[in-house]
Write a structure and sequence with these properties.
- The chain is an all-alpha fold and 105 residues long.
- The chain has a domain at 1-49.
- 80% of the residues lie in helices and 0% in strands.
Length: 105
Amino acid sequence: MDEDEALARLIALAGTSASGAGDAAVLRALVEEASELGARRALARLGLADAAARDDVSDLRQLLGAWRDAKKSVWAAVIDWAVRGMLALLVVGLAMKLGFAGLLK
């Protein structure tokens, strides 16, 4: 029995059952079957329904992690160079102010 057929049987069972404790179990099974079927369809539409999907997602996560690390490193380098540049300008400004302009040549 495939998933569509199981879902159809659960819907038929939910429609014919009398109210009581069994209804909750049937409804729970119906919701679980429907959500499982919907998740499989969504994964299939995204192209993630095959056996290699787990490896593909793992590779994408590693790639995303590497991208984030690279961005962090670039920002750290930019800030480092900006601080160094400002400190160099400060030293040059102090040298000019104190009359050591001849040393700058």
